């Protein structure tokens, strides 16, 4: 009587070789990212240390590190906020049109266009802002300065060159629009179909259905897309460096030539010619931008992680 051997399935809890290799590679990749982040932070701190410990008179500008970085940080935040204020409603409107209004073929074509815009180099946007948006904004700037000059944002002498903070904000808004629109589109498309049909069945119009079902469901996704766009606007370099006429002062004036510069643009313009404490000062400003951008992206990831806790039943 012959005995037949049958292949026994692997014992429960025993992991196959492929699973172990994949887990090891994934874990190693995650650790590598953390190590790279820590090394970058250590490098920035080490390079910025001479400026942090130097006498204020030795720092660029001669008034101390805070006096030098403060206006740059202010300009960075101001330009980014302007970009976000312009881009958020546009990205929501475009995403809603693609996801709930446009015919299928048109929606697909617009989706491809949005994704392609994200691949356009920033220097192209900079040239576009310098040669098209800047000159085209002079008439609008003069009108705003004449009729709304009592508002601090539109006070001062209107620029005759178009190299203003308002132009920077518009260019940055166009740059961050694709990524924000892509995130909003994907979130809106994930709205439970039952929620939309229930709203329509109760007699709601399409816009009322969007207000009742789509926007509440996608709120956290819109916020996370906003944070991702803000993170890119904070670190943009070449587009700002091509357009802005920097000045080391705090300025709310959006139409003036003497607008505050940004940290990234200041580093790009001055680092090649700097050395010693001056170079360390620029690295210190880069460290401030690094911490700010890291905080924004961590906040975005936290919001995205909360999105996983939302389901169609809650």
UniProtKB/TrEMBL annotation:
Leader peptide range in chain numbering: none
Keywords: Cell membrane, Membrane, Phosphate transport, Transmembrane, Transmembrane helix, Transport
GO molecular function, one term: phosphate transmembrane transporter activity
Predominant cellular place of this UniProt entry's protein: membrane
Membrane topology type: Multi-pass membrane protein
InterPro entries per the UniProt record, alphabetical: MetI-like, MetI-like_sf, Phosphate_PstC, Phosphate_Transport_Permease
Transmembrane feature ranges: 21-45, 65-98, 110-130, 164-183, 222-244, 282-304
CDD domains hit by this protein: TM_PBP2
Cellular localisation: Cell membrane
Positions of the ABC transmembrane type-1 domain: 73-300
An example Gene Ontology CC term for this record: plasma membrane
Any one of the GO BP annotations: phosphate ion transport
Pfam families: BPD_transp_1
Coiled coil: none
Family membership noted in the UniProt record: Belongs to the binding-protein-dependent transport system permease family. CysTW subfamily.
Biological role: Part of the binding-protein-dependent transport system for phosphate; probably responsible for the translocation of the substrate across the membrane.
Designated name of the protein: Phosphate transport system permease protein
Biological source species: Janibacter melonis
């Amino acid at each position: 009587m012959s005995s037949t051997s049958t292949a026994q399935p692997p014992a429960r809890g025993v992991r196959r070789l492929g699973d172990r290799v994949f887990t090891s590679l994934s874990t190693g990749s995650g650790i590598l990212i953390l190590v790279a982040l820590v090394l970058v932070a250590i490098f920035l701190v080490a390079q910025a240390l001479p400026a942090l410990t130097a006498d204020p008179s030795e720092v660029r500008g001669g008034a101390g590190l805070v006096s030098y970085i403060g206006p740059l940080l202010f300009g960075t935040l101001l330009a980014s906020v302007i970009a976000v204020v312009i881009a958020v409603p546009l990205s929501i409107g475009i995403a809603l049109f693609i996801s709930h209004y446009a015919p299928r073929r048109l929606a697909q074509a617009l989706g491809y266009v949005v994704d392609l815009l994200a691949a356009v180099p920033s220097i192209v946007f900079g040239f576009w802002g310098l040669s098209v948006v800047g000159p085209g904004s002079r008439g609008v700037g003069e009108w705003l300065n004449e009729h709304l000059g009592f508002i601090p944002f539109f006070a001062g002498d209107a620029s005759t060159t178009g190299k203003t903070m308002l132009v920077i904000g518009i260019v940055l808004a166009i740059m961050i629009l694709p990524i924000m629109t892509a995130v909003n589109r994907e979130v809106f498309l994930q709205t439970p179909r039952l929620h939309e049909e229930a709203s329509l069945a109760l007699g709601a119009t399409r816009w009322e259905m969007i207000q009742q079902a789509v926007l509440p469901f996608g709120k956290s996704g819109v916020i996370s897309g906003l944070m991702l766009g803000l993170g890119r606007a904070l670190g943009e370099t070449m587009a700002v460096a091509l357009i802005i006429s920097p000045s080391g002062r705090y300025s709310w004036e959006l139409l003036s030539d003497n607008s505050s510069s940004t940290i990234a643009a200041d580093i790009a313009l001055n680092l090649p010619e700097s050395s010693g404490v001056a170079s360390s000062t620029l690295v210190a400003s880069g460290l401030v931008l690094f911490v700010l951008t890291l905080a924004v992206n961590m906040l975005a990831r936290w919001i995205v992680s909360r999105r996983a806790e939302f389901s169609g039943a809650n």
